[in-house]
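so my prof wants the structure for this chain in the tokens format not the other one, which i didnt know existed until like an hour ago. anyway here's the sequence
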Amino acid sequence: MVSAVHTAGTGGKGRISTFAFGDYVVSAAVNGRLFAVALGDGTVRLIDGETLDAPSTTVKAHKGAALCLCADIDKGAFLSGGDDGRLVRIAPPATIDVIAEIKNRWIEHVTAHAESGVRAYASGKDAFILGKKSASPRKVTHASSVGGLAINPKGKRLAATHYNGVSLWWLAAQDGAATTLEWAGSHLQVAWSPDGNYVLTAMQENALHGWRLSDGEHMRMSGYASKVRSLAFSRRGHFLATGGSERVICWPFTGGGPMGKAPVEFGGAGGAPVTAVAANPVHDMFAAGFENGTLILGQAGPGGTALIMKANGNAVTSLVWSPDGDRVLAGTENGDVHIADFRE
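here's what i got, hopefully its the right format
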């Protein structure tokens, strides 16, 4: 089902297209003009971001649930991992290629870097690095389960989180040990700053931890009301926006990072916690989704906020922007996908 309505709180310049898919939105990604969402029923839905009134395409990617999703190294394609142990490549109109299969295990994390042609995925304690011309992946094993994966902006290093820290692997190497960034506790989502000098993780506890790679300086960011499930650097890396509170918490990363500095905040949705954040790739702003379904735009600092979508009771689970920064997709726990379109 597709519907298009004018959006309250966007000055009459936006509209929202809604797709009702009926199952939990696990993750969302974008590649060129195509949006993709992975669902708990094992399907991946493809949506043409240029013609939002057109029906979506359904791809049955997994026998069980989809667990992770990212844009692939090829234009218009995506990678999806599932609890059937398969990593699949999905290309329009609805082509599926099995990239890897691990019997009796889950593929829980996936990432790719188009410029370097590298794909990486993780199952349990193992991460696998697959170059564009590689016949088979390189396996790197950690002491505990991988909690998150991210490739640095230059496409040269892979960060894999786990218990007690992060391991950094050189992607071009065929062997060799990782550089370990240590901090006690369980580390989950991970993000690189745009300049590649900072690595930040969301922890199992209500906190973030980070490292400045140039000198090994630690950063401890605590005081959150709940677990931080989403974090995103602004396009130039000046701020790191995070969920985990009733307002969007933005840590400054200019002048040596956030140590000794107070964060700035924006937004709010009647006391509901922030569940997802995403940085606009063109403008210095963020989209933020809340547990009650509210969706807003805002800036770190005094720039104010704009309401995109009022609360509807369905928590926002995923956010992703189009490459031109004119559309933002929000996936929800009940399977609705809303795309706000700000093009004139």
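also thought this was worth mentioning. The chain has no helices and 31 strands.
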